Amino acid sequence: MADVNRSRAQLLLVGALSLATIFLLLSVLLNSVIYTENLATRQTNVDADSAVTYRLDAQRGVGDAVEYVNRNGDRNYTDRYAEYERLLDAWRGLRTNYSVTDGRYTNVTPESGYEGTRVVDDNASTTMTPRNGNATWTVAPDVKSRNLVFDVNVSAGLPSESASDIENILQSNSTGVFRVVVNDSSPTAVAVYNNSSTGDAQLLVYEYATGEYGTCDVPNGRIDVFRERADGRDCRPLTRVSPSGAYDVRFVDGDRANGTYSLTVDRLETPLRRSANRATNGNQCTPVYAPNATATPYTTPAVYSTTIRLDFASTTTTYRTDERIAPAERGSPPSDPRFESLSVSDDGAGDFTVTVNATDPNGALSTASVELVSPTGTQNTTNTSITGGVSTVIPISGPDVSQYRVVTTVVDAAGNRRSVTEKHETDGDDAGCPP
Length: 435
Prior knowledge:
Blueprint: H1 2-71, H2 77-100, E1 105-121, E2 137-143, E3 145-152, E4 160-161, H3 163-171, E5 178-183, E6 188-195, E7 201-207, E8 213-217, E9 222-224, E10 229-230, E11 233-234, E12 247-252, E13 259-265, H4 269-281, E14 298-313, E15 318-325, E16 338-348, E17 351-359, E18 365-374, E19 377-385, E20 392-397, E21 403-412, E22 417-425
Parallel strand pairs: 4-6
Antiparallel strand pairs: 1-13, 1-14, 2-12, 3-9, 3-13, 5-6, 5-12, 6-7, 7-8, 9-10, 10-11, 14-15, 16-17, 17-20, 18-19, 18-21, 21-22
Helix pairs in contact: 1-2
């Protein structure tokens, strides 16, 4: 009987040891699976984070390249974009070498550029006034813009006022202080003055629709409007400058401040200059800008935005996207058609020939219209279908009166539009101003 009990005990012991061994093996296997999954998850997260970091690095690098080529001299757009491609190629080479050491593939490829115009006054001793015209003037009519920056000379006679005094000036649209007005459906003004209490320069952002305002100290006069910075520091009131759609950029009382400024707009140089002349001086050929960069203020062709293709690949992550780069742009990208070229020929006796070449950022240009407006009102209007990038000749006639405004408007399929107005004498002579 004792032998039977002994055998049973030995059997139980062997069974227990076997079960313990099985449980140990299962535990080791389970831990291995958990470790493998954690390692894979961790690697995936690391690569995803690296893809995001690469995207942000590319945005900054490409944005810096765009700003550099725009600042570099008075050149045509083709030269600027070619230099941008060279800078992008150099950046891509450096970044690719860095990524290869981490076992990742990265690439950035230029896809396209969008030409605009940079408006510049780089003479710190001059006022914020045009070449010809009043101290209150339209710098850039009917535009989208980016990178609006001022360096105001704070020691050159800014008016000394309190914030409430400045508010009253802006509210009543009185003279007395320099301000830039971003004039869309809800206009906003940024005024610069010396605070009468502290003696330091200050900016005030005023919303005309609400009457609300906010201030920031700007003792060195550096104002980066769309980056919302005053002397390199955050300036929350500048968030109020948030235009929608196309808008006018106007300077009011430009003779009340000295300094420099620049901004980049989405219109081509010649149409922009003629429209600014018209908006400021009532005709298209009395210039508000100097003919070139030897005097100020001037305009120059610029890279407004670019589109790049981004690629990132690792053992766990593949990422590809197109990125549009437009440094310090406020609001949505350009959507309105624009004039590549426009000429109006005065054929005499109320007859005109309009030649228009327009494009649309949405690729959906639809129609062009021409309106003849005499001093007594509209005399004739004609509409025609047009194709983007192709010159279209539009003849139009009206009564033989002394003078007309010729209003040319291009419209895309979504109803976005842009107009240019020129003043013409009906004398059959295209010379002089107005022609």
